[in-house]
Each structure stands twice: as C-alpha cells, then as structure tokens.
Amino acid sequence: MQKTKGLSQKEAQKKLKEYGYNEIKEINKISPFSIFLRQVKKNFIVYLLFASVLLSFFVNKPITGYAILIVIIIVIGSGFIQEYKAEKAIKALKQMIMPMTIVVRDGKEIEIPAREIVPEDIVILRTGEKIPADCLILEENELRADEAILTGESSAIKKEVLTNNVPEDKNMVFMGTCIISGKCIARVISTGMATNFGKIAKMISVTQKELPLQIKINKIAKHMTIISLLISFIIGAIMLTRSDVLTYEVFVEILIVVIALSVSAFPEGFPVILTSMLAIGAHKMAKKNAIVNRMSIIETLGETTLICADKTGTLTKGEMTVKQIFCSNKIYDITGVGYKIKGDLLLANKLIKNKNDLCLKYFFKTAALCNDAIIERKEIDMEFSANGSPTEVSLLIMAAKMGIYKDDLDEKRKNEIPFSSEKKIMTVYCEKENNGIIYSKGAPEIILEKCAFIQKENKIIKLSNSDKNAILKFNNQATNKAARVIALAYKKSTLIQKNNFEQNLVFLGLAAIEDPPREEIKHSIASCTRAGIKVKMITGDSEKTAVQIGNEIGLIGKTLNGEEIDRLSDDELIKKIKSVVIFARVRPDHKLRLVSIFKKIGEIVTMTGDGVNDAPALKEAHVGVAMGKGGTDVTREVGDLILKDNNFSTIVTAIKEGRTIFNNIQKFVAYQLSCNYAELFIIFLGILFKLPLPLLALQILFINLVTDNLPAISLATNRSTDDIMTIKPRKKSDILNKKSMSFLLLAGTIMTVLTFAVYFFSLKILNTDLATARTIALTTLIFMEIANAFNFRSFRKGVLTRSFFVNKSLVYTSIISLIATLAIIYTPLNKIFETAPLNWSYLSLSLITPLIIIIIFDILKIVRPYQH
Questions:
Q1: Architecture of domain 291-316+518-646
Q2: Which of 63, 417, 460, 662 is most buried by its number of CB atoms within 10 A?
Q3: Residue numbers annotated as active site
C-alpha cells in the first residue's frame, strides 16, 4: 500500500490550533458547582436539618439553631469533598485509556494520541482498530468495518475506493466505528464534534446506569431509612404520650430529637462513599498497571474462580527474539536480545559474514516485507522503538541485524492477503520495476501445505519428503524448547490474482522465536492456587511449546488442542474441561466456546485477549482483560480491564485489590449500621425505662458526624491484609451476609447495653446530675464506637494481635474524634452541647467499655473465625 508524505508537523500544529482536539465533548459535564448542588437537591438529611434550624429559632433556641446550621455545612462539605475526589479519580482514569493512531507526518509513520489528529492527516488503519475520525479512503485491502454504533447494521460493511474521491458511505470510514478486517490508508475529513459521531453525541443525553454494587448499597440504605424513621417516630409518639404538659416548646423539642435520631440512623453517606471507594480503588489499580474500563467489574474481580490466560506476553515476557533459523537444511544461530540491532549470524558457532546465499537473502527479505509492524531506529544504545505484533517485530529486528530494513527496500507492496488467526498465514504481493514477487509467512504446517519447491542456497528444487522431515524435525526441536516457529516462503510471479498467491510456493526456512516466561509468574500462579483460583493457559501456539512453558511456570496437567475441541460435543467437553490445564492451537471461536462452557459449570471467568477476534470471548467472560501493549482497539473497547504491561501478575494484583475493595465496603457498611443501630436503641431503652433521654439532639448529631462518619470513612481506605489471597473466592452474595450481619448486630447490641447500663448506673446508683449522666453515656458510646472501628478493620484478625498503625488513617481520625469529644466536654462548647466536665473516676467508667468490646470480639474471632 502506498502512502503520501502527509502533513508536516508544523502544518499539523497549525490545524490543531484551528480545529481543536479530536474529542467528543462531554454533554452532561459534571462541574464542581453541580456536585455542590447535588449535596443539597437530593439530600433528605439537609432538608430535615433545615427544618430543625427553623424550629429551633421558632422556640427561641438560637444556639441550637446555629449549631445545627454548622452541622448542615459539615454534611454538605463532606459530601462535596468525597464526590469531588471520586470524580477527579474517574477523570484521571479515563485519561489513562488514551487511544493511539498511526499517522503519516513528514513522510514518516508515527504513532500519536488519537485526540491530536487533525483534518487532512493521513492515517493508517488496520484490523481491530477503532476509527479515530471521519476519513476518506485513499487505498484499501479487503476492508470491512463494523458501523453498528452509527447505523444499527450488525453485519460488516465492505468499503472501497471510489475514483471520483467524493465522500460517500462506501469510501468513508467513520469515527467510533471499527475495522473488522483488512486495512486502509485514509485522509481525515472531519474531527471531534464535526464528525457524524460528534453530531449524534450532541443530541444524546447520557444517563449513567447504577452499578450492581450501587443497587445493593441503595437497597440497604432504603431498608435502613424505613426502619430508622419508623423507630424514630415510635420514640417520638411515646415521648408525646408521656409528656405531662404538651406545649409548643415541648412538641418542638421532641420533634428535634426525632429529626436528630432520623438523621443519625439515616445512611446518607452510603452512595457517595461507595462511589468514592470504587473510584479511588480503580485509581490505585491503575497505578499498578490495571486500568478499569467498567467500575462494575471491581466487585466481580473478587469473585473470580478461574483465569484463562494467553501465553504470549501475558505468561511470558513478550520480548520475542529470533534465536535460531533453519535455511538450506542448516541451523543458524542469531545473537542479541530484545529490540537492539546488535546481533550476528552464526553457523556451528562460526561467524557468517558473507550473506550472498540466496536462501538467506530471500529469507530476511520475506521477514521484512511480509510484515505489518513498524520499527524506528534510535541513535541511543543502537535500539529500536517498535509498533505492532511482537512476533512481527522480532522478524523485523532479525532482518535489521542482517542489514535489511523494510523502508530501504525498493519493492512496493501492491496487494496482500492479511493474516487471520483462522488461516494462520499472511501473504503480500510486491513489485520492483514491473517484476512481481510473492512473500508468505505463517504456521509451519500451513506454509508446507502451500509449498511445492524449496530454496537450497542458490538453487530451487522440488520439495521432497526428506526435506519435509528435516523441516518438521527442526520445528519439533524448537517447539520442545518452548519456541514459537514461523515458516517463510516466496515465489516470483507476475500474476496478481489473489487466488494464485498461495500456490506452489518456494519454501525458504523457519524462524524459532523465543519468549521466556516472566520471572514472577510462578509466584503469581502459586498465589492464585492458594486463593482458590484456577489458572488455565489458552494459546494459539503448538501443544509442545505450550506444555514446555507450562512446565517452567508450574502449569502442569492435561492438554487439549483446537482439533480435539472441534470433535467434542458440549457435554463431552464439560466432562473433560475441568481436568485440562493447557488449551493449545485454539482459535478465537474456541475461546468463546470454552468461556461459555466454564460459565455453565459455575466458574466466574476472567479471560485475557488481544486480537479483534478475541472480542466475543472477552464480552462473554465475567471479566474481559484486554492487552494495553499490542492489543487492538476493539478488545480494549470491550475489555473490562486493560493491562498496561500485559502481565499476568497484574491480573492477580487486580483480583487482590477487588477483594480488598469489596471487603472494605462490607466493613464500612457493617460498622456504620452497628453505630446507627446503637444510637437508636439507646434512646429507645431510655424511653422504655421511663428515664430522661440518655442523649440530646445535638449530642446525637455530634456522634453521627464526628465519631460515626470519620472512622467509617477511614475503614474504606483499609489496605489489603496479608491473608486476603489465602481465602477461597466468595460466592455472589449481598454486602450484608449472615456473618457480617451477626457482626454488626452483636456490636450494636454490646454498645447499646453497655452505654445504657453506664447511664442507668450513673443516674440511679451514683446519683449524678442529669448532665453528668448524659456526658458519661456520650463518652462511653463515642469511645466504644472508636474501639469498634478497630474491631471492624478485619473480620478475621483481633485488635490486640495487630499493630494499631495498620490503618494510619483510622488512627488519625480516631484521635480527631477523641479531641473533638474532649472539646465539647472541657471547653465552653459544653454550654452548647449541654455536657458537664467529668472527673477522672467518671471518665474511667467510660474508658473500661471500649476494652470490653475489643476483648469480646478478639475472643469471638479466635473461637469462630470469619470465612467468606
């Protein structure tokens, strides 16, 4: 395919200033002001508190009114900060998923962010790529596009070049659509909001769907709201019936208490905290090279029972290097590793300087010309920067070591049959001075079928059975050493009909490409095994190569190849699939079938993929993992998780993070509800025993804001515990399961009973005044809630057996809560909150209770350890 020089960098910069970035502007953009408004508009708590302010001023209690006004400011402010931080984290996450495109600038192919494309740019688009702008096709080869997003048409649309170059649907590719097969060179016509996609986006108002986790949280919040309002109004009704004289003032005081109780028990922070936890968790994962494409999968990651991983670049390093070649029935070694151009050709350990052997010449030319990858020479360290499939890059590097560069060759590609994972062969037709030549590369067994001749040094002879045996022998030896083997062939021809391209080819040789396993992979697989997660290798490589790598990394067991999968019915496959560890020579349709079968037998499947044809399997999996390096735009689009480093260990890290986030959500919800439950029932017991209220309205609001929320938010930032990857995957369950419910009910009951007991003891046994008794009850509850937050750091490990600084944030928020509590007791603030300074003996009464609740839970965790 030919290409023009394209724009110069200077012209491109000028056009970028004129047209702006190639991006779709957010229609419903969330501004800080809109986040602020959301805290008021949809916050039932704020309305209740405003009502309390008005009532306080109405009955001439301005101090209470102003105090509640401060509470309102804190509620709105904390909600705004949490949501603003979450939005910032989500925005930063989106910027990490930056699509790239190859453009021609100053006659060179370079890769740039798609947002920097400008009108008149020349772009090169290939199979699996998302089209970055509306473009006019200048040249194409077997080009088909999926335009369902624009037209609703599910079948692929054939594209072609029109002689008049007038933009029509046939000769245009459109932003937001993607290339299903083939490739093209195209000129950008319009970008950003001027594209068809941009015009449609203007008319669409996007409504964000609730995540499954949000639905669960909202369900809990809804039920808790109904219960809290019901109990609050029952308490209010009992207080009204027991009042000796019912005046406006008494009625308003009771109403303010009811509102304070409702506010205290109302889980207003749940949705905001959840969004914040997911966003911050996703941001943490991104820092560890796992970019979350869809927030909903964070929950599913923690449930994963099976990882289906591709071999190349995921289980292996992805630094593919041609180490040996087989030409003219001779085995040559090639030195050098990675993308460095330093390397020699050796035969029996002797340096080969004279490369006039025609077989070698055509072998290296085929490697360079039958290739879609791009390498660019760097001055530093004699290294290349590369773009394209690692296999193709390794072949270009090999040719470059021998002094052959694709861009320096005069032969121009005129036609081609693109590679596909089904055919496992790629063929190009090139011309030089009207002389045609065909170059092919592919799987050895496929190339051999297409060959009738073989090149031996400077001669072409008929391909014999002994030649085939020698070729297959080298192939077997190389695959037994875990090498990927690529065969190369060619023929001279003036026929440019595609149906003749791959017939009667001349066999040139084999390239053995090595890609060593990642150093940390064995440890990561062992970590999965301990966590109850099965790992299976699914690869297009040969069975021998896959087994060899499997043996090195600890994936040892039965194998199944693509041909065997084809022969088995679903029922037969279900019987075999559980014991199989390695699936070799599989096609994308096999991957889809395997994922479906695994789901049928109850596995929660995480699946990796990089090619355009892997997209259906990624969609079918519970968690589709796309490759950030070398993967296609299509797989990155459908993938739930994108690996920036293509590393299997990053998936394990993401699963660990997913488990931690869900664990923290469980802890946060259970802790918050245990506190709400205690506050409600302490008041209820006071009414039941016909005692004065154990806590006043402002005191209840203080507890809710300072000692409930601060430690609760800190629980959301808990780091992964050492044992998080030693427990079995949890089954799909609600946030509040039997164990966490029993945890919160026990904690709430202990806090209720001990607080009320201390209040009763102070008032009736010690005969303290009411303000002192209430202050003792207040400090008792606050100290226990802080201690309880440390209990909820882990459902499995005791407080006294771990460092208090495992969660530093919790320590700091606890100190703030304690200082704030002492401030409303021992400073002039005690007049506002109607508290009394406590002497040491009264304070020590409050300090005993947190130790009691810690000891009870530590014993419980030993006697009945928590399991998912």
A1: 3-Layer(aba) Sandwich (3.40)
A2: 662
A3: 310
